[in-house]
Design brief:
2 domains; 15 helices; Aspartate Aminotransferase, domain 2; about 425 residues; Aspartate Aminotransferase, domain 1; three-stranded antiparallel sheet; seven-stranded mixed sheet; alpha/beta; single chain; binds ligand T4K
C-alpha cells in the first residue's frame, strides 16, 4: 500500500484580488506545496529491505539489491545492459568519457545545468543549440549547422520526458560520424514510436534523484545495447578495477549503494500507481485551467508511454496580462513553490555566460520558452484538493489580470 504524504489542502478561498497573499491576504497553503516531492512506494517493504541489508552487512560495491535494480531497469527499458550510478551527473560524465568525446559536443541550452557541466568538467566545450518551440528539445536543423571539425558528439535531452526527434538526430550522427548520447534524466518509463526510451543512440542516462518520477533517493543509470561500452561503464564506475589490485582504465566512484537500490526496487513496484496519479493530476490541471486565454499546458503524446512527471505551464504574457515571473511570485506567496525550470538556459548561466560570451549562435526559441514556462506541483504528495486550490488562484489572477498588474506595479517604487 502507498502511504500518501499529502498534508496540505487549500483552506483560504480567494474571493477578491486583495485576498491574495502577495497583497497581504492569508497564504492559501499552510505548508509549502513543492514541485518535485518524491513518489514513495510501500514503506514497509522498503524497511524490510533495509533491515535485510543491515543484517547481511553488505552496503555497497557489487551488492545484490543493485544488481536486481539494474536487471529491472534494463528489462523495463528494453535494453541489454544497465549500469547503475550514484546519480545521473556522474552517469553522464562516465558515458561521455567512455564514448571518448572531446573537443566540442552539441547540447541544448534549455536543460538542467548538469548536462553542460558533465562536459565542461572534463574540458569539453558544450556547444549550445536551440530547441524546437513545440517539443522543447534539440532542433536538429541547428544541430547540423553547429557541426565543426572539432565536434565529436551530440547529447539530446528528452525534456519533461518527451522524446527528442530521435530519428533525425540518429541520422545526422550516423552521416557525420558523431557519437549520440541521450540525457534521459526525465524519461524513465517513456517511449518513442512505441519503443522504450533507453535503447537509442550509443547510450542513455536516467536519473533516479528524489525529484524524479522513479527515485532511489539519489541515483542514476547508464543503459546501452553495446556490451563493450557497458563493460567500460562498469569499470569506470569502480575506479577502473577489474580484479583485486588491478585497474584496466581510469575511473571514478560512481557506485549506487544498496539502500538506494532498495528504494529504487520498492518504488518500481508502485510505478503503475505513480503514472496513474501523475496522469490524473495532469488531466485535472488541464480541465481546471481550460479556457484561460494565453495559458497552455505542455501536452504529452497520447500515443506514447509517458510518466507525466512534469506539469508545465506556458504563459503568453501579451495575452494573459500577467507575466510568468509575476504569476510565480503570486504563487510563492500562497506557498505554492512553482518552478521556472530551466531558466534562463545554460548559455546564460556561469561559467558558460562568461566562457562563451562571444559564441555566435543565437537561441531565440530557448529564450522564448525559458521566459514562459512554469512547472506546477504534482506527484503522489499532491492531492486533487491542492490542485484545485492552485488552479483557483491562477484562474482568479488571470481573470483579474489588469487589477493584479496595477497592484503589483504599485508595490514597486518608481
Ligand atoms: N539532466 C537533466 C535533464 C536533469 O534534469 C538532471 C537533474 C540531471 C541531468 C542530473 O541528474 P542527477 O545528477 O540529479 O541525478 C532538481 C534535482 O536536484 C535534479 O536532480 C533535477 N535534474 C532538477 C530538474 O531538479 P533543484 O535545484 O530543483 O532541487 P531542489 O532541491 O530545489 O528540489 C526541487 C523541489 O523538490 C523543491 O521544491 C523541494 C522538493 N523536494 C526535493 C527533495 C530533494 C522534496 O520535496 N523532497 C526532497 O527530498 O534540482
Amino acid at each position: 500500500m502507498i502511504m500518501s504524504t499529502a498534508t496540505q489542502e487549500s483552506d483560504s478561498v480567494k474571493q477578491a484580488v486583495g485576498d491574495l497573499a502577495i497583497f497581504g491576504g492569508t497564504p492559501a497553503f499552510k505548508n509549502p506545496l513543492h514541485v518535485g516531492q518524491p513518489n514513495i512506494g510501500d514503506h514497509k517493504k522498503f524497511s524490510e529491505r533495509v533491515n535485510d541489508i543491515l543484517a547481511r552487512r553488505w552496503l555497497t560495491n557489487g551488492g545484490s539489491y543493485v544488481s536486481d535494480f539494474e536487471e529491472r531497469i534494463a528489462d523495463i527499458s528494453g535494453v541489454a545492459h544497465c549500469v547503475a550510478m550514484c546519480n545521473a551527473t556522474i552517469g553522464l560524465e562516465i558515458a561521455i568519457r567512455a564514448l571518448e568525446l572531446k573537443g566540442e559536443v552539441i547540447i541544448p541550452s534549455f536543460t538542467f545545468i548538469a548536462t553542460a557541466h558533465a562536459l565542461q568538467w572534463q574540458g569539453i566545450t558544450p556547444i549550445f543549440c536551440d530547441i524546437d518551440r513545440q517539443s522543447h528539445c534539440l532542433d536538429p536543423e541547428q544541430v547540423e549547422q553547429l557541426i565543426t571539425p572539432r565536434t565529436t558528439g551530440i547529447i539530446g535531452v528528452h525534456l519533461w520526458g518527451r522524446p527528442c526527434d530521435i530519428d533525425t538526430l540518429t541520422e545526422i550522427a550516423a552521416r557525420r560520424g558523431l557519437k549520440l548520447l541521450f540525457d534521459s534524466a526525465h524519461a524513465f518509463g517513456c517511449s518513442y514510436q512505441g519503443r522504450s526510451i533507453g535503447g537509442f543512440g550509443n547510450a542513455e542516462v536516467f536519473s533516479f534523484h528524489a525529484t524524479k518520477f522513479l527515485n532511489s533517493m539519489e541515483g542514476g543509470a547508464v543503459v546501452t545495447n553495446d556490451p563493450e561500452l557497458a563493460q567500460k561503464f562498469r569499470l569506470m564506475r569502480n575506479f577502473g578495477f577489474s580484479h583485486y589490485d588491478q585497474t584496466d582504465s581510469i575511473g571514478v566512484n560512481g557506485k549506487l549503494n544498496e539502500v538506494s537500490a532498495a528504494m529504487g526496487l520498492t518504488n518500481l513496484e508502485s510505478m503503475a500507481e505513480f503514472i496513474a496519479i501523475n496522469l490524473g493530476h495532469h488531466k485535472q490541471y488541464q480541465d481546471e485551467l481550460a479556457g484561460l486565454a494565453g495559458l497552455s499546458l505542455v501536452p504529452y503524446d497520447e500515443h506514447e508511454r509517458s510518466n507525466y512527471q512534469y506539469v508545465v505551464l506556458e504563459i503568453d504574457e501579451a495575452t494573459t496580462g500577467v507575466g510568468r515571473d509575476q504569476l510565480m511570485n503570486i504563487l510563492h506567496a500562497e506557498n505554492v513553490l512553482a518552478r521556472r525550470y530551466f531558466y534562463p538556459g545554460c548559455h546564460r548561466m556561469e561559467p558558460y555566460r562568461t566562457l562563451y560570451a562571444n559564441a555566435p549562435v543565437s537561441l531565440p526559441q530557448t529564450e522564448f520558452v525559458a521566459a514562459r514556462v512554469l512547472t506546477l506541483p504534482t506527484g503522489q504528495g499532491v492531492t486533487p484538493a491542492s490542485i484545485s486550490g492552485v488552479c483557483e488562484i491562477i484562474r482568479m489572477v488571470l481573470e483579474n489580470a489588469s487589477e493584479v498588474r496595477k497592484l503589483l506595479d504599485e508595490r514597486v517604487p518608481g
